[in-house]
Amino acid sequence: MSYEAVIFDLGGVVLGSPLHAIARYERDRRIPTGFINRVVVETGPGGAWSRLECGELELEAFYAAFERDCEAAGATISARVLMERVAEAAQPRPAMLAAVAAIRSRGLKAAALTNNWVGEGDGTRPLQPHFDAFIESSALGLRKPDPRIYRHTCSTIGVDPTCAVFLDDIGRNLKTARELGMTTIKVDEPEEALAELERVLGFPLRGRGLLDASP
Q1: Strand, coil or helix: what is 166?
Q2: pTM of the entire predicted model
Q3: Per-residue pLDDT averaged across 162-187, rounded?
Q4: Number of structural domains, the chain?
């Protein structure tokens, strides 16, 4: 298979994992494991988290709205503290940025596809220069796993979904990509994901000479 592009989720792939930060917050507050993710999924498009990532809520308005969603589901949280934890975790992973640079040096497109938000604490925008295209849910009013945002991403970089590899750390986001014909890689451990991406693409992404990820 000859691929033309690699599409990267940011949080949990190119940046440190928000899922890990949320899990630590749940442990610290003695909230049931997975509670916050269930609230996000079960409240759907009308929930505060989805509205934040679709640009319908700014961060300050999100805090009280998400606290109400969680309260209705049975737990009291501080959404402000939660999002501060998420922001602290969102540190760039140098090996991933080196891989992005290596992919582009081979003539393939590299795109970012992120569910993000408007306001302080979103650490994704400084990464824009590393990518050929930078697709933000908060700018489009669409978020993963809506298939329209995947199609928009492929259209923006001029590739068919079947010619793209997609990396994400959330299974439901990968499911939609697979249904559209993309090759998918789930990112749990970054090094393992990069090794799998190397096997898929057929060229190295790690090692000496690939550590300078400057755009």
Answers
A1: strand
A2: 0.93
A3: 98
A4: 2
